[in-house]
Specification:
220 residues; binds zinc ion; AT-rich interactive domain-containing protein 2
Length: 220
C-alpha cells in the first residue's frame, strides 16, 4: 500500500472511521479452502446459500444447446402451423408434460402461474374491468392506469395484477401486433386502442385450450 501502510493498518483505520463497526457476527464466513470446490448437493455450507432443493437431478443428461431459441423444429399436424392456436396448443402440451414429470415441484416452482395461466384466477368480468380501466386511461404511454388498477383490484394484490398484465395482457397484445404486422414494442409505445377494442369482446375466449382429440388434422 501507499506510504508503507500494511493492510491491517488500513482495515483498522476503516473500522475506526466507520459509523457501524464490523462485529464478529457480521463477518463473512469463509470456509477453509480444501483445494477443490464442493460438488455435492448435500454440502451443508453450500445449501445455506442454495436453499431447499425442490428437484433432484436424475441424470447428467447433456443439454441440446444448439436448439435453444430456435423454437420447435419438427412439423406438427395443426391446421395452421405457426398460428397463435398452434403455438398455444404446443405450449399447453409441453406444460402438461412438465407437470407430469415434475409432480409437486411444478407448483413449488410456481410454473402453474406462468404464461397465460395467470389468467385462470381472473373471471371474465374482472378481465373486462381490467381492460376498461386501461381503455379509459389512455394514452397509456404515461402508464397512468396502474394506480387505478391497484385500487380496483386491491383484493388481488399488486403481484397478481402485474403478473396478469405481463403474462396475459402483453402476450395478447403482441399477438395483435404480429397479426397486423406492427412493430412489437411492449414497453414504450402507447397501447393500441384497436387492441383494447378487439380484446373487450374476446376476453376469456382466446385462452381456451384446444383439446388434442378435437383438433382438425391436416391430412392423415
Ligand atoms: Zn402446431
Amino acid at each position: 500500500m501507499q506510504n508503507g501502510h500494511s493492510n491491517e493498518d488500513a482495515l483498522r483505520s476503516i473500522n475506526k472511521s466507520s459509523a457501524s463497526p464490523i462485529r464478529p457476527c457480521g463477518q463473512a464466513d469463509i470456509p477453509e479452502w480444501t483445494g477443490k470446490p464442493p460438488s455435492r448437493h448435500d454440502d451443508r455450507r453450500a445449501m445455506r446459500f442454495l436453499g431447499e432443493r425442490i428437484l433432484i437431478p436424475e441424470s447428467n443428461e447433456a443439454l441440446d444447446v444448439g436448439s435453444i431459441g430456435k423454437g420447435r423444429q419438427e412439423n406438427c399436424n395443426c391446421q395452421s402451423p405457426g398460428s397463435i392456436d398452434c403455438i398455444r396448443f404446443h405450449v399447453a402440451e409441453k406444460k402438461d408434460e412438465l407437470k407430469r414429470k415434475l409432480g409437486s415441484a411444478f407448483y413449488k416452482m410456481g410454473l402453474h402461474e406462468t404464461g397465460e395461466d395467470a389468467a385462470h384466477s381472473w373471471t371474465k368480468s374482472e378481465e373486462r374491468r381490467f381492460n376498461t380501466i386501461i381503455q379509459e386511461n389512455l394514452p397509456s404511454s404515461e402508464y397512468n392506469f396502474w394506480d387505478i388498477l391497484r385500487t380496483a383490484f386491491r383484493y388481488k394484490g399488486s403481484k397478481a395484477i402485474a403478473s396478469y398484465y405481463h403474462n396475459v395482457f402483453q402476450v395478447q397484445r403482441r399477438a395483435y401486433q404480429n397479426h397486423l404486422g406492427l412493430e412489437a414494442d411492449s414497453d414504450d409505445d402507447s397501447i393500441e386502442p384497436g387492441f383494447l377494442y378487439s380484446r373487450q369482446g374476446n376476453v376469456g375466449r382466446s385462452r381456451s385450450r384446444p383439446a388434442a382429440s378435437s383438433r382438425k388434422r391436416k391430412s392423415s
